[in-house]
Amino acid sequence: MGRSKNNPLPAFDELGGVSSRTSLTAVTLVTSRFAKYKLGFIQSSSAPNLQRLIPKHQEDPLKKLKFIVSLTTSDNDYQMEQAVAAEEAAKRFGVEVQILYAENDAILQSQQLLKVIQSNTEAHPDGIIFEPVGGTAMPQVAKAAAAAGIGWVVLNREVEYISELRSTYKVPIFSISSDHEQIGRIQGSQISTLLPKKSGAVLLIQGPAENLAARQRTSGMYESKPADVQVKLMKANWTEASAYKAVSSWLKLSTSQQALIDVIAAHDDSMAIGARKAFHELTDADLRSRWLKVPFLGIDGVPKTGQAWVQQGLLYATIIVPTNTGRAIEILTQSLNTGTLPPAKTLTVPKSFPAVEELSNKRIPRSLAAKTI
Q1: Is the C-alpha dihedral spanning 180, 185, 190, 195 positive or negative?
Q2: Is residue 207 within 8 Å of 183, Cβ to Cβ?
Q3: What is the pLDDT along the chain (373 residues), one digit of tens a residue?
Q4: CATH fold of 181-320+354-369, please?
Q5: Would you list the domain boundaries of the chain?
Q6: 181-320+354-369: same fold as 66-177+323-348?
Q7: Which residues in 106-120 are b (16+ Cβ under 10 Å) and which e?
Q8: How far apart are CA 7 and CA 301, in angstroms?
Q9: In what order do the strands lie in the sheet with 41-43?
Q10: The domain made up of 66-177+323-348 is a member of CATH 3.40.50.2300
């Protein structure tokens, strides 16, 4: 039943895939004659059952899939863990990855990715997996990638343009993100548990204002912290050095001397450690000692850094945020090899380290907290 006069197209199985009796040559002829073919996808108004990804292994069984992984910076423990997870997943699923670092520069990240997409000398990758530096998540770059037949995966960001691109281009386009508002809620719960009278003040070192993840983490923290806990905001740029600089500058102000701070919280572990380093370098021994008795809270919980710092007593607690590059590679590889489109959004689940309930044993005596300045 391969063909008939009334049905000149090759046979398709019940799932819409090419029948095992149909050769790749036949598929190529069909796509060039009846449909618009773009890097493994067939779109045809005359044959709706062709709305399906042609698995990449059927295009060229010997060709390895190649992905670009674009990360925000090489100066952050979580981003480095993302790189390690990507390389491990690449080995596990038999694909190639090239890792790029944007060094916290949105323009540089855009230029790096456009160079890959617009290259006339090197073969296009099969997919781009990236964590945006800027606030927009580069919709025009995403469109250029999709138009070139390149899969597009956004990490740790919820972006509105994904649904529009998925309806226009039949390539894998999706996001995998930490639940940043839930991360903030967990940090707020940690603060609540540490302050026995549900009152006091927190110094919050947050990520850049234009970064959606930073805004969501702050929003979540405000949602779950006790109403009587006051928050002083300070901005840094997801690195130890940026937090050290911000806190050091603040400590030079006379207003810092009057501040009563009970908890120091940061949007990631590296910034918490950067802040601690600034306090540690105070020349006044008594002032330094009092500051360093204040509990420091972080986020990310990488085993060799954040979790280790908690165990060493440098941080009171962190929040384990699962890496998502490995999961992105898994989903993208499966999509391209099986011809199925993945869900538009996947969320990972964060957790407190140690558990929030365990922090009740580490509550700050109110008499000590009030003397931290």
Answers
A1: positive
A2: no
A3: 444 444 443 333 333 333 333 333 333 333 332 233 334 443 333 333 333 455 554 555 567 999 999 999 999 999 999 999 999 999 999 999 999 999 999 999 999 999 999 999 989 999 999 999 988 899 999 999 999 999 999 999 989 999 999 999 989 999 999 999 999 999 999 999 999 888 999 999 999 988 899 999 999 999 999 999 999 999 999 999 999 999 999 999 988 877 889 999 999 999 999 999 999 999 999 999 999 999 999 999 999 999 999 999 999 999 999 999 999 999 999 999 999 999 999 999 999 999 999 998 876 655 444 444 3
A4: Rossmann fold (3.40.50)
A5: 1-54, 66-177+323-348, 181-320+354-369
A6: yes
A7: beebbebbeebbeee
A8: 58
A9: 36-38, 41-43, 52-53
A10: yes
In angstroms, the CA 122 to CA 118 distance is 9
One-letter amino acid at 95 equals: V
The residue assigned the tokens 């925000």 is: 72
